[in-house]
Design goal:
- The chain has 23 helices and 31 strands.
- Strand 29 and strand 30 (about 690-695) form a beta hairpin.
- The longest helix has 15 residues, at about 620-635.
- Helix 2 (about 85-95) crosses helix 3 (about 100-110).
- The chain starts with 6 loop residues before the first helix and ends in a 5-residue tail after the last strand.
- It folds into five domains: about 5-115, PriA, 3(prime) DNA-binding domain (GIY-YIG endonuclease), CATH 3.40.1440; about 130-185; about 200-380, Rossmann fold (3-Layer(aba) Sandwich), CATH 3.40.50; about 390-435 and about 495-625, Rossmann fold (3-Layer(aba) Sandwich); about 640-730, Alpha-Beta Plaits.
- By secondary structure, the protein is α/β, with parallel strands linked by helices.
- Helix content is about 30%, strand content about 20%.
- The structure holds adenosine-5'-diphosphate (ADP) and zinc ion (ZN) (2 copies).
Length: about 725
């Protein structure tokens, strides 16, 4: 050590780094040159024979390992800002709560481009660009064989272009042109005017007053508003106030398809503001730039799906979780986190408000509101002056028998809308042509050879194919029954494709559009379809839950629901909560503007309490009854659960592992019950046998204590070829 170096500085020459490695600990490296400012920076380190990217979390003077064995860091990335301490703390919380390695959590919240070792330089990123004088001359001389350049030039000649409206290729051009001096940062003056906000409804005004009273500090509020009640307007006003005061807002939506619509509304309202829409549909380069912009505090509003809850936001002032009940907020693999719950935790951590919005809140959320942990604000009426909630009617399929899925009543209602030039939606939550291919002689149904599931019949061009919705296996339908040899194989049941076909035969003049995962596969396809619907180029929409959620289709006056009963017989006790929410959502698409809406639900169980609550639009009644059932059964939210999920090729090894795990934990903690290992609802996917062990505790604290001791022991249990992971607060199986 050089004699003049103060010992307390020289001493901290070992860096502790979080790496995306399966081992849950930090790794030590020699880092003589690193200092306090490097905490949270990305580093490149040797790991075995590879080089990995990690995050530098601590500096220490002594390692647990002999210092002679430590290797030096390869590099510290000082060209990108360090991860802020609060984000690292958030990652630590998530890693601890969901029992996942911290290094893996940190890696997953970095944009993919920053998980890799190449060096990145950060752009200076103005929000909008305009042509300079030199630029105007230069682009006029662009050659005709450069269509992309000329297209961008055209837009710039018409006025400044907002950076977020540029795609990856255009951004590359912009960088180039800025270097050439053709472009300059445009100021906000040149940007289109903000729309005039509508006059608030009484309920919206009251909601905003209440939110204002909750203050700028931590407060969780459930905004329970019926479909079409104008929750988004409430968000927009709160966001406006927050960004006006120089802080940032984070808005989460459950589905990538909901982002463009929300983004549009935000841009119309706040055209001069920097809005980042983050989602997995973006190109890698875009994600990196946007993420860095958020990290630099350059964004006023960040909008995104699940993973965006981990976006670095130095001036965070508000979090909003739209459609908070949606199961898509829960990640089902890797770190099985709930973005909604992480959002509430983050709001608490940062001391800022969080708003959870829904027409059908999750029962946990509803209970939190009933218990006073969350504030509750209600919007009971639709916002649009003439709009009322749609009339929900049940069509009893025991009397009015469906033909090709369609009852007489629903057919007549569709015809009626066609005659009046209004739009309809036929909702069926099954994609493909028919759920199964069935032998009419012996009843044999074609199974997937790799999963415990039936193959789904899909129409493919002029022919058909069989596809497994779980493992993706696709084959040609067998010409004859593999069981009895009969040639009489028939499509059994309805899928979106078959309903589309039936409707086309019945209403040959109608313009029919199918919206499901198969028809929206290409990037941007969904947005095109949404525009077609908005432009009234569609008479009948056929769709799955993709169309049920959150979309505003003002010309839609009829919703028909086919096949809802299937979910009633699901073995998952959460199925009814999900079905109720889904049907309320889909019903909510009808009658959102001037004309009243009608909803027809085909069912063989018209007296089922779920449907009866639906007719009355009675979410609170449904919630009360369902919560009572949960309390009686000791299910969440009246208990805390974790599920140990295991899978492997060898079913005996999987069950053996879970059995050993159960024995290890038996009697370890009072108030914690371990159930017998059982096969998962889908007990085999792609030849992997899947099973699980439920851990149920009377409360969160004993569960936490239990997991602290139990989990470290699982690694030592026999389980060759068994992959396992823990799911805290599971939402399925
Ligand atoms: P939600 O998110 O609660 O389902 P939205 O925010 O999408 O509802 O609003 C439903 C419709 O009502 C939208 O078309 C919206 O433009 C309109 N709307 C919202 N607030 C008002 C208002 N105060 N005055 C008039 N129309 C409104
Ligand atoms: Zn047969
Ligand atoms: Zn399969």
């Amino acid at each position: 050590m050089p004699p003049n170096t103060p010992p307390e500085i020289a001493a901290l020459h070992i860096a502790r780094v979080a790496l995306d490695a399966p081992v849950d600990r930090l790794f030590d490296y020699l880092a003589p040159g690193c200092d306090e400012a490097d905490l949270g920076r990305r580093v490149e380190v040797p790991f075995g024979r590879r080089t990995l990217v990690g995050v530098l979390l601590e500096r220490v003077s002594v390692s647990d390992l002999p210092e002679a064995g430590l290797k030096p860091l390869h590099a510290i990335d000082r060209s990108t800002p360090a991860l802020p301490a609060d984000l690292i703390e958030l990652a630590r919380f998530a890693a601890g709560y969901y029992r996942f390695p911290l290094g893996a959590v940190l890696a997953s919240l970095l944009p993919p481009a920053l998980r890799r070792t190449e060096r990145q330089r950060r752009d200076a990123l103005p929000a909008a660009y305009a042509l300079t004088g030199a630029g105007r001359e230069a682009v006029a001389a662009l050659p005709a064989r450069a269509p992309a350049q000329r297209a961008l030039a055209q837009r710039l000649l018409a006025g400044p272009v907002v950076r977020d409206d540029l795609d990856e290729r255009e951004r590359a051009l912009v960088r180039e042109w800025r270097r050439l001096g053709w472009l300059e940062a445009a100021d906000a003056q040149n940007i289109p005017d903000a729309e005039t906000p509508p006059a608030l409804t009484e309920e919206q005004a009251a909601a905003l007053i209440a939110l204002d009273q909750h203050g700028d500090g931590y407060a969780a509020t459930l905004l329970y508003g019926v479909t079409g009640s104008g929750k988004t307007e409430v968000y927009l006003r709160r966001i406006g106030a927050v960004i006006e005061s120089g802080r940032q807002a984070l808005v989460l939506a459950p589905e990538i398809h909901l982002i463009p619509q929300l983004e549009e509304r935000l841009r119309r309202r706040f055209p001069a503001r920097r809005i980042l829409a983050l989602h997995s549909g973006l190109a890698e380069g875009e994600r990196r730039q946007d993420w860095l912009a958020a990290l630099a505090g350059a964004a006023d509003i960040v909008l995104g799906t699940r993973l965006s809850v981990f976006t670095p936001m130095p001036r965070l002032g508000l979090l909003i979780v739209d459609e908070e009940h949606d199961a898509a907020y829960k990640q089902l693999e890797g770190m099985r986190y709930s973005a909604r719950d992480v959002a509430v935790w983050r709001a608490h951590q940062r001391g800022v408000p969080v708003i959870l919005g829904s027409a059908t809140p999750a029962l946990e959320t509803w209970k939190n509101a009933q218990d006073g942990r969350y504030h509750l604000i209600r919007l009971t009426r639709r916002a649009h002056a003439e709009a009322v909630l749609p009339a929900v009617r049940l069509v009893d399929t025991r009397g009015d028998r469906p033909r090709m899925g369609l009852t007489h009543s629903l057919g007549a209602a569709l015809e009626d809308r066609l005659n009046r030039g209004e739009q309809s939606l036929v909702f069926i939550n099954r994609r493909g042509y028919a759920p199964t291919l069935r032998c009419n002689a012996c009843g044999h149904v074609t199974p997937c050879p790799r999963c415990t599931a039936h193959l789904v019949l899909h129409r493919a061009g002029p022919g058909y194919r069989l596809t497994c919705h779980h493992c993706g296996l696709t084959t040609r339908p067998p010409p004859a029954c593999p069981e009895c040899g009969s040639l009489d194989m028939r499509a059994a049941g309805q899928g979106t494709q078959r309903v589309e076909e039936t409707l086309a035969e019945r209403f040959p003049a109608a313009r029919i559009l199918r919206i499901d995962r198969d028809s929206t596969g290409r990037r941007g396809a969904f947005a095109v379809m949404r525009d077609q619907v908005a432009a009234r180029e569609v008479d009948i929409l056929v769709g799955t839950q993709l169309v049920a959620k959150g979309h505003d289709f003002p010309h839609l006056t009829l919703v028909g629901v086919i096949g809802a009963d299937m979910a009633l017989s699901s073995p998952d006790w959460r199925a009814s909560e999900r079905l109720f929410a889904l049907l309320m959502q889909v019903a909510g698409r009808a009658g959102r503007a001037e004309r009243p809406g009608e909803v027809l639900i085909q069912t063989g169980y018209p007296h089922h309490p779920l449907y009866q609550a639906l007719i009355r639009h009675d979410y609170p009644g449904f919630a009360r009854q369902t919560l009572n059932e949960r309390r009686a059964a000791g299910f969440p939210p009246y208990s805390a659960q974790a599920v140990l999920r295991a899978e492997g090729r060898d079913g005996d090894a999987v069950m053996g592992f879970l059995e050993a795990a159960r024995e290890t934990g038996e009697g370890q903690e009072k108030g914690v019950a371990l159930f017998d290992p059982v096969p998962a609802l889908m007990s085999r996917i792609a030849h992997q046998t899947r099973a699980q062990l439920l851990v149920q505790a009377t409360a969160r604290a004993p569960l936490r204590r239990f997991l602290d001791l139990w989990l470290p022991r699982l690694g030592g249990l026999p389980g060759k070829g068994v992959k396992w992971g823990l799911d805290v607060d599971p939402i399925e199986g």
